[in-house]
Amino acid sequence: MATSPAAVEARQLVKRYGNLAAVDGVSFQALRGEVFGFLGANGAGKTTTLRMLCGLLRPTSGTALIDGIDIQADPLAAKARLGYLDEEPFVHPHLSGREFLDFVADLYRMPRGRQREERMSRLLNLFDLAKKDGDLIGSYSHGMRQKIGLASLLIREPSVLLLDEPTNGLDPRSARLVKDLLEELAARGTTVLLSTHILEVAQALCRRVAIIDRGRIVAIGSMEELREQTGSEGADLEDLFLKLTAGPESREMIERLLDTGS
Amino acid sequence: MSGPGGALRVIVGAELRASRNRLVKGNRTRLVALVIVLLFAIPFLGGGTFTLGATAGHFLPFAVDPLLAAAFTGLSLLMLLIGFPTVIASLFVGRDLLQLVVAPVRTRDIFVARLVTAMSANLLISGVLLAAVLGLGAGAGAPLIYFPVGLLLIAVQVLVVTSLQAILMTVIVRWVPARLARDVAAAVAGLTGAALYLTWNLSLRQTFRSRARPDVSGLTSLVQRIDWLPTTWPGHALSAIAGGSIGVALVWLLATLLLAAILVAMAELLYERTLLAGLGVFGDAPSIWRRRSTARTSQTSPQRGEGNPYFAIARKDWLGFRRDVRRLTRLLPALLLPVGYAAALSQPARSLSGFWSNIALITFLSMFMASALSLPSIPSERRGFQLLRMAPLSMWLLLRAKVFIAFPVVVATMLVFSVAVAVISKSGAAQLLELVIFGVWLAAGFVSISVSGGAIDPRFDATDDRRAVGLVGSLAAIGGSLGFAVLSLGALALFLFGEQAAGGGANLGPIPSTPAVGFAMILGGAALLVACAALVGILLWIANSRLRSFEASIASSS
């Protein structure tokens, strides 16, 4: 199982809703200890792909493997290895921060005791939530909810993290903390599949990226490989992304709008 | 905005379009059901109330004034209790208010536009009063002017009560968060509605038995005691018209209109000040109490060994129920009905005694309790279901956890009730034991079936527990529960009569009371029990496979 170098593998994943193919034959591999970027415009199919990889959605066809385990064939074993953070993480509003972490730890059958309590306290301190750990999550700000969602993943040390916009709503200090944390986790062998709109984050963190457009992977590889594929020497990720997901020229559209308005 | 009238038109127009879209583009099944209910309710309820009013007006002409005064006062009280949540939601809680407040719209326009929405629940309630008032006028042979004035006064009364509610809320919101006030008001409204329904239903039974002439002396003395209340003024105005005293009527009418004008102006002024103070949806007042921090104090689960998902889900649900006023308040009225019915019907005076009536009561109570508690238990996870789906748990474990959470509550209620009915009906210990065993069996079955119903057709995106289960799930739960009840009652009957037949002491009509017949009956009872278990098993199996493959709201939420 764990002999494959790929910690996350999508093999020809397809998800159809009637005639609409939200995801259309997506294949890629995220290697062990790698931060892998998964980029795409709104509605490109990022979240649907991530939800198929973590077993929330059943693919119309294709296979999703976590640490070599087919998540549809053996969901419990695959889920025990991964942690998924949704774009808007669900956190029970009527539990306190500490109670929520306790709840998640119990769901994953983590051994109770001092070690677990200490890890919980360390995470709450790390995310600056220790002083609010007794308050109901319903009273937390958006950023605090995002942080408690992240803490609920990290408490159980999964070997694979699937993160959908993890820095969404975080203040600059917390966003920096998350970036540093992901780098450190990857250095220790955790695989991070990062879906984000913030291309600076992807460029800074990801060894390789895949770009999805209208349900299909249009490019995959390191920055250098992407530049080679597109023939754009010296281009940054933003330029590459715009080139690969070419739509109507935005500058032209803005000018037209402003001309009409004046 | 083009002007004050323009802003008002735009806001009310948008509200109307939104309502139309909710109806037209919403669930077609619900729309059809609503139309059918209205088609039946309007002639039945409206016609019935009109006839009642007309009969009273015709046969009790001397009681027209107290009847009208009491009707206006009673309905005002009802509007005050039942319509309050709508007023709070329309004027103080709706998120769309933020958009109106930041737009260049005068507060007065916002108030007036939202007042129209705020009055909707009170207007619906006043429909009952309208039918009664018109019927009373027709029965008493009132002049034609009585009817339009009656209509006007009812509309004014709705305005008065709604303005009073707005005024009360501008005071309450200074100390209590608006959302909490709305939830508590919803609970009061729900309990009032349930209590009224119960009272009406039970008094209806009493009425059918009673042959006595109605005595209005109590009503007359009551109205004399509350005559100072402004809620009686429209009633006096109408009775004066009906009696031909136009001058007196005019005085009462003007007093009512003046009061309405004062209350509306006060409400508008206070509402404006509330908005300026940044209360309600714009930033709640600091609560008059503070919730105790749960840190450390809530560590109640065992501190050693492996984490247990069962306990985790149970504890989470328990804490959620305790802390979510809204869920609790929706459950209370649902629980009032069975307990109220059962308590009322088990009174010796109702002449429903004996073992089988106790069994029927227990069956009804446990079915209702299980449905109220367990049907929404899985859909009420809402987006939290994703968390459970992501965890390495089987959906079978989730179903079992939900059954085991609701089961003790239903069983505890059953036990209390069984003991109560056994004591009231002077049943012996053996019958009490039979009641308890049967109650536990029913509770296990009904809870499992209700949990399955919720899991078969969950609406995880519903914000209200009452709409959290789709039609298929509700039908599965109701059908399954009825089937389980019939099979269980059949099994119990076969066991009890079979035992008597085996001893040769049963009266089975043409069937001989022999040991062979008794044995066959007991075997038949056992077969029915197996059928019960199979029914529960099948529903749980369907629920498990539905949850494992559920995608609907997961795919659409982002």
Task: Tell me the layout of helices and strands.
The complex is a heterodimer of chains A (262) and B (558).
Chain A: E1 6-17, E2 20-31, E3 35-40, H1 46-53, E4 61-66, E5 69-70, H2 75-81, E6 82-85, H3 97-107, H4 114-126, H5 142-154, E7 160-164, H6 172-187, E8 191-195, H7 199-205, E9 208-213, E10 216-221, H8 223-230, H9 237-244, H10 250-261
Parallel strand pairs in A: 3-8, 3-9, 6-7, 7-8
Antiparallel strand pairs in A: 1-2, 1-4, 4-5, 9-10
Helix pairs in contact in A: 3-4, 3-5, 8-9
Chain B: H1 4-24, H2 28-59, H3 64-82, H4 84-93, H5 96-102, H6 107-118, H7 120-140, H8 146-172, H9 178-209, H10 217-225, H11 233-242, H12 246-276, H13 309-323, H14 325-345, H15 355-374, H16 384-390, H17 395-424, H18 429-456, H19 471-502, H20 515-548, H21 552-556
Brief characterization of the structure:
With 262 residues, chain A is α/β, with parallel strands linked by helices. Chain A has helices at 46-53, 75-81, 97-107, 114-126, 142-154, 172-187, 199-205, 223-230, 237-244, 250-261, and strands at 6-17, 20-31, 35-40, 61-66, 69-70, 82-85, 160-164, 191-195, 208-213, 216-221. In chain A, the strands form 2 sheets. Chain A has a 6-stranded mixed β-sheet with strand order 6-7-8-3-9-10, with helices on both faces. In chain A, strands 2-1-4-5 form a 4-stranded antiparallel β-sheet.
